[in-house]
Amino acid sequence: MCGIVGVVSNPSAKDIVLTGLQRLEYRGYDSAGIATLNSSGSIELRRAVGKLQALVTETETNPLQSATTGIGHTRWATHGAPTTANAHPHIGHMGKHKLAVVHNGIIENYQELRAELGQLGATFHSQTDTETIPYVIATALERSAETLPQAVHAATQKFRGSFAFVVMQEDQPDVLTGTRRGAPLCVGVGEGANYLASDPLALAGLTSKFIFLEDDDIATITPKGVSILDGKGKPVDRPVKVLDLTTDLAGKNGFKHFMLKEIHEQPAVVSRLLQSYTNPVDLSPVLPLQGLNLAGITHINIIACGTAYYASLIGKHYIEQFARIPVNVEVASEFRYRNPPYQKGGLFIAVSQSGETADTLAALEHAKAAGQNILVFTNVTTSSMARAADAVVDLMAGREIAVASTKAFMAMSVALGLFALQLAGAKGQAAAEILEASRALRTLPAFLSSQIATTKPLEELTEKLLETGSMLYLGRGSLAPIAFEGALKIKEIAYIHAEAYASGEMKHGPIALVDKSLPVVNLATSTDGLFEKTVSNLKEVEARHGQIILVTDAEGIAKLDSASRDKMHLITVPTVPAFIAPMVFTVPLQLLAYLTATAKGTDVDQPRNLAKSVTVE
Ligand code: G6P
Question: What would the pLDDT profile of 516-537 be if each residue is shown by its tens digit?
């Protein structure tokens, strides 16, 4: 989603902004822009639609004068199409005050503000909500505010919605002011120069010291330092965190795409989680859950979006099976608006790779306000969700760059499995079963490695899928979420329409779609006691001449009659205990989506229209 970079007091302001924007490309965007304050104090603006290279070319064709202050933005269109006029920065002026702004989020009351500002003489050149921001701040400066931070404070009282924005003022070199509400913004504390960014990665190599702003904080950076006002306009100190971002800057490491690299990292991610979160002697899970009273938990809500939602569905299976506690899993965008009833003893779990997804964060805040205990599983321990939680489980997947999540999904599934086992232990559930599952987890990295290396049968299948317009994915029990995730992956990066259903639901609707042109991917393990049920569903597809793709293990294959078997495309996975089957079955579906996408030539790491971290509703 949108990205923000700002710099003061650095003679390479333009290059720093462009490099920062390049580091934020992975988040997904469709236009980009930069504004600098040249030595005569004027704002210079360059914007371009499409990839960042278009902006770089624009700055080469129409060079910017040298400048030490700059702001930049990658925009993921919400209000208004991806055009140059809608790209940020946006400029607004009132009287003698002229400002440039870059913004992430949505100003929901922008229509009212536009009407109000229009009467004051504002002229809008874009269809964006953002363009109201510089006008509202300039109006505050014109009317009463003495300083830019005061004007920003006054302006934020007028805005509804979520935002993070940075403002640059003409004739005010080496000063930038930024604020946030709901969307992330941090300060990079440098030597002589200071920075603002929506993600520390944008500033990697410039500083390792970061201040993560709280909602409604207003930070002003100058060459001399950083000053912060809280939501009430009072000066406040926020802690400085030191982050080592060197590994985040690692490239593709010889892989063609980040997605493939991240698929290959999965065994190491799982090993790291097991090493960090299990006792080496008795293998018992030791997640850092000191902030929670596990024995007192009576029910659980797990809330997430996208891939994290599917991982959460696996978590539900584990928790209910092992800890015998009822679990509700829901997408955050629905949960937050249905005013859910909360009961004492409830635990609210947010699962989020980024820790910044707007809907998940809002749902978390709703539950927190209602007094629920909050546990967050996230890959970013400095994120807004992590900071709001009673306990945080670091997913330790390392930065995930490809928009389509793979290693974070794997980490979520394993961490939720460990949580289920730890909770089961705290609840006094059968120790033998917990130990058996813990032992199974130990074997997972090796199984993942061998599965990642098995691409041949998938490559053969890929060729058949090139002309396919639609697919169906089916799975039962803890493999149903894997079917959902597999369908999501092929949609996201190979742009093939795919529906996923719990196998038993197929005959309640999607069976109407089955004919000889429909590939139906079925997931079945011989170790969960549901194999025969799944074979019945396969027969239903076979009877209607659907193209069956069966992902199963050798025992499963042996149970098929040879006539059926010959008609299927078989993808073999190792025979593994049911506890780790979801993770093992995930890999061929990730690879199938990846190989199909690369064969089709899509933009695998930055697929069209998608964003890595969705910080708007
Ligand atoms: C976006 C990404 C997905 C991700 C989802 C939730 O849609 O494209 O890959 O699963 O957001 O993100 P989160 O950071 O909360 O896990």
Answer: 999 999 999 999 999 988 888 8
| Angle of CA points 226, 230, 233, to nearest 5° | 100
Q: Which of the residues are catalytic? A: 2, 612
* Residue of 612, 453, 585 lying closest to 521 (CA atoms): 585
The DSSP letter of residue 509 is: T
Ligand 1 pocket, residue 287 CB under 6 Å: no
CA of 612 to the centre of ligand 1 (A): 6
Q: Is the CB of 606 under 6 A from ligand 1?
A: no
Distance (angstroms) between ligand 1 centre and the Cα of 401 equals 12
| Structure confidence at residue 223 as a pLDDT band (50, 70, 90) | very high
- Ligand 1 closest atom vs CA 611: 8
- Alpha carbons 349 and 297: distance in angstroms, whole number: 12
What is the rounded CA–CA span in Å between residue 325 and residue 312?
15
CA of 402 to the centre of ligand 1 (A): 11
Query: Where in 510-610 does DSSP place strands (E)?
Result: 519-523, 547-552, 569-572
Taking CA atoms only, the protein residue closest to ligand 1 atom 8 is 612
- Region of 3 (left: φ > 0; alpha: ψ -120 to 50; beta: rest) is beta
Ligand 1 contacts CB of residue 308 (under 6 A):
yes
Q: Which residues pair with 33 in a beta bridge?
A: 47, 73
Q: CA–CA separation, 88 vs 74, rounded Å?
A: 8
Is the full-model pTM beyond 0.85?
Answer: yes
Token pair belonging to 367 = 């539950």
The pLDDT value given to residue 67: 95
Condensed to tens digits (0 to 9), the pLDDT of residues 363-397 reads 999 999 999 999 999 999 999 999 999 999 999 99
Angle at 365 between CA 360 and CA 366, to 5 degrees: 95
Is 612 touching ligand 1 by the criterion CB < 6 Å? Answer: yes
With b meaning 16 or more CB within 10 Å and e meaning fewer, what string describes 541-570? bbeeebbbbbbbbeebeeebeeeeeeebbb
Nearest to 92 by CA among 128, 134, 36: 134
Q: Give pLDDT tens digits for 104-117.
A: 999 999 999 999 99
CA 379–ligand 1 middle distance (angstroms): 12
Q: Are residues 80 and 114 in contact, defined by beta-carbon separation less than 8 angstroms?
A: no
The rounded distance, in Å, linking the Cα atoms of 77 and 116 is 24
Domains defined along the chain, listed by start: 3-247 (3.60.20.10), 258-451 (3.40.50.10490), 456-600 (3.40.50.10490)
Cα 614 to averaged position of ligand 1 atoms, centre (Å): 7
Amino acid residing at 225: G
Ligand 1 atom index nearest CA of 357: 15
Q: Tell the residue nearest (CA) to atom 7 of ligand 1.
A: 306
> Is the beta carbon of 354 within 6 A of some atom in ligand 1?
yes
* Structure confidence at residue 214 as a pLDDT band (50, 70, 90): very high
- Compute how many other C-beta atoms are within 10 angstroms of the C-beta atom of residue 242: 9
The pLDDT-based confidence of 10 (bands split at 50, 70, 90) is: confident
